[in-house]
User: Which sequence fits this backbone?
């Protein structure tokens, strides 16, 4: 779960920042989570700064899968609940 949240945070940050921004990405720390994501090739070194990591295409695809599998049903439940409340409103 922590890895999913970390990838999602990187993905959403990547929507607003460009790759030519050297401050983008996360610091390359020696944590087990970062090492695991790097071994799975979801993170790669930033082209302009070696001490930062960015999402690869595999990481972005995984983040989109998380969004479709987790956030989409939650939004569907909330919208359905709101429609039911509007329908049965006195």
Assistant:
């Amino acid at each position: 779960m922590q890895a999913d949240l970390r990838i999602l945070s990187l993905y959403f940050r990547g929507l607003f920042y460009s790759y030519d921004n050297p401050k983008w990405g996360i610091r390359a720390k020696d944590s087990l989570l970062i090492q695991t994501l790097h071994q799975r090739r979801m993170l790669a070194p930033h082209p302009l700064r070696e001490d930062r990591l960015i999402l690869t295409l595999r990481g972005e695809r995984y983040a989109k899968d998380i969004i479709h599998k987790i956030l989409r049903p939650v939004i569907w439940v909330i919208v359905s609940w709101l429609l039911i409340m509007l329908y049965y409103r006195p």
Summary: The chain has three helices and three strands. The first helix runs from residue 2 to 16.
